[in-house]
Amino acid sequence: MVHPRHDPRRRRIPFKEWPVEDQRAWMNALAPGSVLEEGGAAAHWAPQTRRNRKGAYGRWLNFLDRNDRLNSDRHPPDRVTRERVRDYVMELQKTNSSSTVHSYIEDLYAVMKVTSPLCDWTWLKKTANRLQVAAVSQRDKITRLRPSADLYTLGIQLMNDSETATGCTILNRAKRYRDGLIIALLAARPIRRRNLGRIIIGQNLIKTSDCYWLHFEGSETKTLRPIDLPLPATLTPFMDRYLDHHRRVLLRDGKCRNLWVTENRTAMAEHSLYRAVRVRTEEAFGKPINLHMFRDAAATSIAIEDPDHVRIAATLLGHSSLATTQKYYDQSRMLAAGRKYQSTLNQLRNKLRTEVRSPHKINSGARSNRESP
Question: What is the tens place of the pLDDT at every residue in 218-239?
Answer without folding.
Answer: 889 887 888 888 898 999 999 9
